[in-house]
Amino acid sequence: MGAWQSYRLRVYRQTWRARATIKKRELSEVCNLTKVIKPNDILLFSTIRNEEIRLPFFLKYYRNLGVNHFILVDNHSSDGSLALLKGQPDVSIWQTEHSYKTSHFGVDWLNCLQSRYGHGHWTLVVDPDEFFIYPFCDNRPLRALTDWLDANETRSFGAMLLDMYPKGPILDQTYHAGQDPLEIAGWFDPGNYTIEPNTRFRNLWIQGGPRARMFFAKTPRRAPALNKIPLVKWHRAYTYISSTHMLLPRGLNVVYDTTGGERLSGLLLHTKFLNTFHIKVLEEVSRQTHYAKSLEYQTYAHALRHNPDLWCEWSEKFTGWQQLETLGLMSKGRWL
Amino acid sequence: MVVHVDRAVTSSAHERFLRDLSDLPKVKFCARQRCEWGTWGLVAASQFACEMMLANFADPQHIYLASGSCLPIRPVQDLISYLEANSATNFIESTTVSDVPWSIGGLHKERFQLRFPFAWKSQRWLFDLSVRLQRALGLKRRLPQGITPHLGSQWWCLTRNTVSAILNDPKRPIYERYFRRVWIPDESYFQTLVRHHSTQIESRSLTLAKFDVQGKPHVFYDDHLEILGQSGCFVARKLWAGADKLYTAFPMASDTTRDSTGRSSDALNHLFAESAARGSKGRVGLYMQSRFPHQDPHAPLTAAKYTVLEGFFDLFHDFQAWLSQTTDNKQAQIHGHLFAHEAAVFAGQKTTIRGGLSNSATLRDNNPTAFLTNLIWNTCGQHQCFQFGPHDVQKIGKILPQDSNAQIFIITGAWLVPLSQSIESLAEIHAKALRLHAAESKHLALLRAPWVKAKVHIWPLSQIIANPKLRLHEILKAIEPNAKCPTTVPEINLDPIAFPAFVRALENQGMHRGLAGNLNSVKRMIAGPEIP
Questions:
Q1: What does the DSSP assignment read for B324-350?
Q2: Contact by Cβ (8 Å): B409, B457
Q3: Among chain B residues, CA nearest to A137
Q4: Are residues A11 and A37 in contact, defined by beta-carbon separation less than 8 angstroms?
Q5: What ipTM does this complex have?
Q6: A336 vs B280: CB contact, 8 Å cut-off?
Q7: pTM for the complete prediction?
């Protein structure tokens, strides 16, 4: 790496951090319970908006996995999300009415909170529709994973986004609060992902899955990125850029092996495609706040008019982490 | 029992620890040392503990060195009975340097030849510098007289006599001075000196402790309960602090009939080997979020062998149907032109195939290499066979020759056959022929390059017409190694008189000569014996 490029990335990182500091003003504290956080706690950061229906299962899932504290930014929910969260003993909430788009889709807000409360902790950054899964997760809690990463001097952990979808048209089955979304959206595409290395930030750019197959077959470069690095032993000098797809310093993005071996990795089961998707899409299109000027969401809105079925003959039904490991979507690496 | 507490432990935590254990009269605490990984402190701590043991306890038979992350798997009483039955045996892994396969940080014999005043973990920069400096200056230490360096696991169980002989050796200061500057002395001090003081040695550790290739100890979790129970080992390390099931299940009930010869179970060995292979070699042909190898000159690009056929569709009538019938469709999948401009033609005209791979041309052409590697990975166990030719999108043509799993059969000039039946004007045909010929020449140049790793068979059109059965048998053998010679071959789409005339006409228009080989032999058209 040339010294000049290294310097430029440093400046770039500091710009992101400065922006996060400025964006701190947009956040107002609703419920700050961060005093109860112990030095070794695992923290979860998320931005939410009108997720009342998803939150009960979301909290249950991550508590069960071993998350000790939730730090959430509520972006002007109009449903009962805030009321639901306020009573929880392990949830700290900040609220903002500012634009999701100008804060880089929540990245600035979370960078700011992470540098303040996440320093020295293992932090997990996920959306309310993403469920983190890793090898042995049925027997070993998140702490076992972070202990192993610590012992192996690994600071970041990759987990690709795996789009889950129901069998049959998306809008046909109704999701109820508290229900495991995988009961409905239990299917995935096992083997149609493409990878390109990004030399500037050293991450892998992964695309594919049902969205590329159904919505972006004509414009594959526009298909959403699926590479994610949600679990990081946070340091206040770190910063996410572009959702949790990449970080700076860029060494954190190298969560893969280039010599032929496999590194330990997990997956984020992405349960976006429930009947609630319809409402989200309409909202996002009208707000025009998502990536690429909402082009992605316009594509969805167009597709949803026909109540599409993402299921195909070769879709696989999710049965457990072993299946995903065997298919090669994630890997045990050296963990045994 | 003598406990050593690292000096790095805070005094408040240490005091609490002493208080908690104060009701145990048999537990003593020895002088504290700082025990950094791979440094002398670890040996010094065991020496302190042993001295205290010998001074405070009446005549112990054996001394067992264990760590805080060790857990007895079998009851301590079983261990005691076993040691009583082997009262004079020292259990310590102790092998000569040349017999040990592990070398961390690229150091092997040099562990005993250089000086290591710096810690590998916390002073890596100084450590590396000092090693390099000593190598450059050619510095080598002389070993103390009468010892041969031995290595082994730091968890041993020695007899009282051996321990006291090591501790009371008049030359102990000389040995100590030497071992203080050896790298990882905890794996060599006792292991070397035990050879000096005893001959009754079983060179194995009673503690099950495994390390991965990076020298990190393996950690056991709740899901290893069964495998640990079956292992027959007395003590295992390391256990994850949160593995509650293991801590409640072990030590298990007494069973003196068990094999204690220390052969760790096959299941455990298999587990370790599998994990090591996953971490170092991975699954060949798999590209995913945590395995993305840069082109490795030795490894194939894809997960399994596959066959690429070029020109066969043009030359033979209904070739795909024939090939599908001739091969076992459980073992082989026969596709059409996977890289056709309009869409990938999958077997059975499917729009998606295994893995959810779409036939969309834009998706495929966005990353043709990924399309190919995905196809082969998804269909592992079923041989893939597809058509390719100068009509197709050519990007993959650069990749195929680099893959040692590719078996490419190409009939040069076969694209002339459909052209010869075209009703277009000769000028139009000529223009098309020029284009196809250019594409084919480029492709052939790639296939003939010196770095090609694929298995390439290039046959001129004339050669295959002369003996189609023999050539098709070769293809069948590439798909199924035990394939028999085909009883029927598909009909050849070619007029023996009109076709040579057509090629001559094209050549007279200015086309390159000899596109389809020597067409005089085409007139024979009868399968005769192959002339080598």
A1: HHHS-TTTEEEEEETT-SSB---GGG-
A2: yes
A3: B223
A4: no
A5: 0.93
A6: no
A7: 0.88
